[in-house]
Automatic annotation (TrEMBL):
Gene3D superfamilies in the cross-refs: P-loop containing nucleotide triphosphate hydrolases (3.40.50.300), Probable tRNA modification gtpase trme, domain 1 (3.30.1360.120), tRNA modification GTPase MnmE domain 2 (1.20.120.430)
Quaternary structure and interacting proteins, as annotated: Homodimer. Heterotetramer of two MnmE and two MnmG subunits.
Function according to Swiss-Prot or TrEMBL: Exhibits a very high intrinsic GTPase hydrolysis rate. Involved in the addition of a carboxymethylaminomethyl (cmnm) group at the wobble position (U34) of certain tRNAs, forming tRNA-cmnm(5)s(2)U34.
Protein name: tRNA modification GTPase MnmE
Keywords, ordered alphabetically: Cytoplasm, GTP-binding, Hydrolase, Magnesium, Metal-binding, Nucleotide-binding, Potassium, tRNA processing
GO molecular function: GTP binding; GTPase activity; metal ion binding
Species, as recorded: Roseicella aquatilis
Residues binding Mg(2+), per UniProt: S229, T250
Source lineage: Bacteria, Pseudomonadati, Pseudomonadota, Alphaproteobacteria, Acetobacterales
Binding site for (6S)-5-formyl-5,6,7,8-tetrahydrofolate: R22, E80, K119, K438
PROSITE patterns: G_TRME
A single GO cellular-component term on record: cytoplasm
Length: 438
């Protein structure tokens, strides 16, 4: 039994001028002929009346596009119906497609079929998912490079080199008594060491690609009434957090999302650090400390008219930014714990432009788009770490058979990233991230 013919809404939900229904599978041509009368010319938009297959009721006047296999996104017979975007129209055409023998697609099923039909590899599929989810220009650029094959080219090149090394090693084992080139076995070990160094250099990227894909977390920490909530509101450009002269107003973590030079940043305002007055504030302070420990960057805030207390000073650490707020009340000190603080006034806006520029620099330094194709997922990192470990095993292996097995294991690990070997366990995890219709 062949694959089912599927359909899904490929455009956004809700009312719109146009809605796009995507179809794919062996029954696409029959379904289009049933609803639209005849198949249009391939890859040409044709205006048709769509009729229900049982009642012949006219459902809509729509543009129909037909993409015969293999020249389609999925590699199967595919089509698109560009409908009027009302919910009743979409529901009526969907019901007609079910009556014609099609079924609704599962999340990611279109792209999964594209992968299974050899139209793209797993890294490109993940790049498409990231492209759909991209919030910023930098995320879009990184996702587009991956979707267009930047990671596949890199990892595929390593796989080709490993395959060549394995062939040499197998030749040494099978034809040891033959007149093989001198030093063939040693050359395998030497070349594998070079490849391992390249993989390790790729891994030593401080997680830039993953951070850009997922976004950075910046935590604002400090004593009550240091102006943390006012700072959050000023950077967000809206009243996201309640501001009050009463100490302990912020009990939970308040978050806003920012775009800093293309890097998505979650800015978290936390409860003021002090001896808590009740169990609710105790929990708020616990969450504040945990958020700061998890953060990629901590903004330690104190008020210029109050010297920072011991709890605040404990967070003046390497990598943190120290902010002296309320410079409209008193000037910022020259040094705090050996660090030059950044003077700002969340109330008047003094110093905020410079602070935003500094935050953008820090964000780009931690998660900016790298020149080469960066790692973007933990599964890539785990597989490459495993491959590098197997190549290290090869260098220490005393027998050629053990070296060959290390090469095979390293090749399998890299193959799991692109989907060329051992992919069944990861397919559901990869394509489960997609929306319906993609």
């Amino acid at each position: 039994m062949g694959p089912a013919t599927i359909f899904a809404l490929a455009s956004g939900a809700g009312r719109a001028a146009v809605a796009v229904l995507r179809l794919s599978g062996p029954g696409t041509a029959a379904a289009i002929s049933t609803l639209a009368g005849t198949l249009p010319a391939p890859r040409h938009a044709s205006l048709r009346r769509l009729r229900h297959p049982h009642s012949a009721e006219v459902l809509d006047r729509a543009l129909v596009l037909w993409f015969p296999a293999p020249a389609s996104y999925t590699g199967e017979d595919s089509a698109e119906l560009h409908l009027h975007g009302g919910p009743a129209v979409i529901a009526g055409v969907a019901e007609a497609l079910v009556a014609a023998g099609l079924r609704p697609a599962e999340p990611g099923e279109f792209t999964r079929r594209t992968f299974l039909n050899g139209k793209l590899d797993l890294t490109a599929a993940e790049g498409i998912a990231d492209l759909i989810a991209a919030e910023t220009a930098a995320q879009r650029r990184q996702a587009l490079r991956q979707a267009e094959g930047a990671l596949a080219t890199l990892y595929g090149g390593w796989a080709v080199r490993l395959t060549a090394l394995l062939a040499r090693q197998e030749a040494f084992i099978e034809f040891e008594d033959e007149d093989l080139p001198a030093g063939l076995d040693d050359a395998v070990t030497t070349t594998a060491a070079v490849l391992r160094a390249e993989i390790q250099a790729h891994l030593a990227d401080a997680g830039r690609g993953e951070r850009l894909r997922e976004g950075l977390l910046v935590a604002i920490l400090g004593a009550p009434n240091a102006g943390k909530s006012s700072l959050l509101n000023a950077l967000a450009g809206r009243e996201a957090a309640i501001v009050s002269a009463r100490a302990g107003t912020t009990r939970d973590v308040v978050e806003v999302r920012l775009d800093l030079d293309g890097v998505p940043v979650t800015l978290a305002d936390t409860a003021g650090l002090r001896e808590a007055a009740d169990e609710i504030e105790v929990e708020g302070i616990r969450r504040a400390r945990r958020r700061a420990e998890e953060a990629d960057l901590v903004l330690v805030v104190f008020a210029t008219d109050q010297p920072p207390d011991a709890e605040t000073m404990a967070w003046v650490r390497p990598g943190a930014l120290v902010l002296a707020n309320k410079t409209d009340v008193a000037p910022a000190p020259a040094l705090v714990g050996g660090v030059v603080p950044i003077g700002i006034s969340a109330r008047t806006g003094d110093g905020l432009a410079a602070l935003r520029a500094r935050l953008a620099e820090e964000a780009v330094a931690r998660a900016g788009v790298a020149a080469a194709a960066p790692l973007t997922r933990s599964r890539h990192r785990a597989a490459l770490t495993e491959a590098a470990a197997w190549l290290a095993e090869l260098e220490a292996a005393p027998l050629p058979e053990l070296r060959a097995e290390a090469l095979r294991a390293g090749l399998r690990a890299i193959g799991r990233i692109t989907g060329h070997v051992g992919v069944e366990a990861v397919l559901d995890a990869v394509f489960g991230e997609f929306c319906i219709g993609k």
